[in-house]
């Protein structure tokens, strides 16, 4: 809820901060001037000075809350996939191979755009890949409470087998409750031994379907472009089982995949839309920043006017550079967007302040 620092409260009541600190101490609450106290405490101490505290603050949820979706409003959406695996097992090569399946040779030459995610269109469905392979991105997102991945593709080199980061990736995916599809890579190599990889994976609880388990495993070569279509097919199959859905007909919500400051463009964020549809002109709040969508670009750098669920888009028109994992939410107007963003910033500052206070108090006690 809302909070106010002791100093701020004293100022508003026109009394000395030390008086308020003393009152709080008598109430059994040792605090310092810079410390934030919650609404109830503020009301209590204010009453001692014969003041009433009015609740003018708000809960974010009052503004950001959206109504429960009706089942008929939910429409299928593409799966969002993260590629993980041990270093040098071929994550980057696989992402490249997949990306190129969707381009003509001519177009492929022009792929310079990097927005941190891309959208692959297939005959029987679309797939979105997060272009930030590795555990760091995945773990950082999860630490921030962001659940952006529907499926993990675990790359294991057929000539190397299960390694330390392979096991880590399995654990990450399990902890996040995200299904794993295994891509046994480098099968073009003479020393490739897919059966050994399957045995090793089985020891970690990933049993291939052919052995009666339920883990989809596809043999691929990112280098020779073997099995890529099969892998994409399996991803779509897995997605179908998951019945991934979202309501496209409401204000957009999403997560920042990456963000940077670009010369001539200002703050640029790649946002993965998770529900609703984002449109040019929409007012939004993004972490502690806010603004109005000035322009939108897709993963190919083309200007677009709107983006629906599971789509990665570049958003221009932010008040600052947000952090990866930040929540992105469209609100009614820019005034509300600013209110939420400023509220968050205030809360962030209060948190920082109370952290410093705590350290100071601890030091104080040491001296006693
Ligand atoms: P990452 O560290 O997991 O991103 O691995 P990279 O994609 O950078 O690949 C590591 C090395 O393995 C590079 O030299 C690739 O050319 C090579 N490599 C990747 N996939 C294959 C493959 O399917 N076959 C062969 N022979 N080499 C591959
Ligand atoms: Mg790599």
UniProtKB/TrEMBL annotation:
GO terms for cellular component: cytosol. Residues 79-227 are annotated as: G-domain. One of its GO terms (molecular function) is GTP binding. Its main location: cytoplasm. Keywords: Cytoplasm, GTP-binding, Initiation factor, Nucleotide-binding, Protein biosynthesis. Residues 76-245 form the Tr-type G domain. It is found in: Cytoplasm. Signal peptide: none annotated. It comes from the Bacteria. GTP binds at residues 85-92, 131-135, 185-188. One of the essential components for the initiation of protein synthesis. Protects formylmethionyl-tRNA from spontaneous hydrolysis and promotes its binding to the 30S ribosomal subunits. Also involved in the hydrolysis of GTP during the formation of the 70S ribosomal complex. Belongs to the TRAFAC class translation factor GTPase superfamily. Classic translation factor GTPase family. IF-2 subfamily. This is Translation initiation factor IF-2. It comes from Thermodesulforhabdus norvegica. The lineage of its organism: Bacteria, Pseudomonadati, Thermodesulfobacteriota, Syntrophobacteria, Syntrophobacterales.
């Amino acid at each position: 809820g809302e909070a106010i620092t002791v100093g701020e409260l004293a100022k508003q009541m026109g009394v000395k901060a030390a008086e308020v600190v003393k009152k709080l101490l008598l109430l059994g609450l040792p605090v310092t001037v810079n410390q934030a106290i919650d609404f109830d405490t503020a009301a209590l101490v204010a009453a001692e000075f014969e003041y009433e505290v009015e609740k003018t603050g708000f809960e974010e949820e009052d503004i950001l809350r959206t109504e429960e979706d009706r089942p008929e409003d939910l429409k299928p959406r593409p799966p969002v996939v993260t590629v993980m695996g041990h270093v040098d097992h071929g994550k980057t090569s696989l992402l490249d191979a997949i990306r190129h399946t969707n381009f003509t040779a001519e177009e492929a030459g022009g792929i310079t755009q990097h927005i941190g995610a891309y959208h692959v269109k297939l005959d029987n469905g679309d797939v979105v890949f997060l272009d930030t392979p590795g555990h760091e991105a995945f773990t950082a997102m999860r630490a921030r409470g962001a659940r952006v991945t529907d499926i993990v593709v675990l790359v294991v080199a057929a000539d190397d087998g299960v390694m330390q980061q392979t096991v880590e990736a399995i654990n990450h995916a399990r902890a996040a409750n995200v299904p794993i599809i295994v891509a046994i890579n480098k099968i073009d190599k003479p020393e490739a031994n897919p059966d050994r990889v399957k045995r090793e994976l089985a020891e970690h609880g990933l049993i291939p379907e052919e052995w009666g388990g339920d883990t989809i495993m596809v043999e691929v070569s990112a280098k020779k472009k073997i099995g890529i279509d099969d892998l994409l097919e399996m991803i779509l199959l897995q997605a179908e089982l998951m019945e991934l859905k979202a309501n496209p007909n409401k204000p957009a919500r999403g997560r920042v995949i990456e963000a940077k400051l670009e010369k001539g463009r200002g703050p640029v964020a790649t946002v993965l839309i998770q529900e609703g549809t984002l449109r040019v002109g929409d007012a939004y709040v993004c972490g502690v920043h806010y603004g109005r969508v000035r322009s939108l670009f897709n993963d190919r750098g083309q200007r677009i006017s709107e983006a629906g669920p599971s789509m990665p888009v570049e958003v221009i028109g932010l008040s600052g550079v947000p952090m990866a994992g930040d929540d992105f939410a469209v609100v009614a107007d820019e005034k509300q967007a600013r209110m939420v963003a400023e509220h968050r910033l205030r809360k962030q500052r209060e948190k920082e302040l109370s952290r410093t206070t705590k350290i100071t108090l601890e030091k104080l006690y040491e001296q006693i």
